[in-house]
Design goal:
The chain is α/β, with parallel strands linked by helices. It has one domain: Nucleoside phosphorylase domain (Rossmann fold, 3-Layer(aba) Sandwich), CATH 3.40.50.1580. 37% of the residues lie in helices and 30% in strands. Strand 2 and strand 3 form a beta hairpin.
Length: 242
């Protein structure tokens, strides 16, 4: 890889997420690193490295650490599909995460809206100056690309959220608007290493009894909505303002 001013690591859990990322962000130079596929693109002062991490916290945490150790990125992105916990979110809406909560690490406890710090992870969007930039970007996206970005908390755990009762519990106790398996692992790894992180997830299901069918029906199209937005943020000057 060629040295550049800003390096960005993208952690892709699923094969479909990695392939969409590679295609839409026009990543090339695919190779294998420590048993994982990686691809990259360098343009002007930006270099992006995406990794096919594998599903779950362990795979994504170790992939994030690999990218950090090998490439020393300034930013790590947690990306992919997610379920909606909020009635205000629709399929293909994009969620920019502020905090991620590990609900599966809190079994038997009432989580509340201020869980222990060990179960809570932040992104750069939790900082007002950074959030302001992304809010300006989200307005631009809505006006020019016709897509919706919302901000909120993530409920993260290695358990599918596919019933209404559990969905409501996570919404109420964590004030979370979306859920997935891996965000906390990626964001916590970045946080431990002092690397700035983002979480950008696209809604593919409503975290209810139809979760599996909705995921299969919507995932590919939703990723095709999200990755052009990510491409604009990284390569068109927005990330330089963070």
């Amino acid at each position: 890889m060629i040295n550049s001013d800003i390096k960005v690591g993208i952690i892709c859990p699923l094969d479909i997420e990695y392939k969409s990322c590679k295609k839409i962000l026009k990543l090339h130079h695919e190779t294998e690193l420590a048993g994982r596929l990686i691809s990259s693109r360098r343009e002007k002062d930006i270099e992006v490295i995406a990794v096919k991490a594998g599903v779950g916290k362990i795979c994504c945490a170790s992939a994030a650490q690999l990218i950090i150790d090998k490439f020393q990125p300034a930013y790590i992105f947690d990306i992919g599909a997610a379920g909606s916990l909020s009635e205000e979110l629709n399929i293909n809406d994009i969620v920019c995460g502020e905090y991620s909560f590990e609900y599966d690490a809190c079994t038997g406890k009432k989580l509340g809206k201020t869980p222990p710090d060990d179960d809570k992870t932040f992104t750069v969007i939790s900082k007002p100056p950074c959030k302001k930039v992304f809010q300006e970007f989200s307005s631009w996206v809505r006006e020019t690309m016709g897509m919706t970005i919302q901000f909120g908390n993530i409920a993260c755990g290695e358990k599918d959220v596919k019933n209404t009762e559990f969905k409501q519990k996570l919404r109420q106790e964590l004030d979370a608007i979306t859920c997935n398996w891996e965000s906390s692992a990626v964001l916590k790894t970045a946080q431990i290493n002092g690397v700035k992180s983002f979480s950008l997830r696209v809604i593919v299901d409503f975290a209810d009894e139809s979760m599996n069918d909705d995921f299969n029906a919507n995932c590919q199209k939703a990723l095709e909505v999200m990755f052009p937005v990510l491409n604009e943020f990284i390569f068109e000057g927005w990330i330089n303002r963070i």
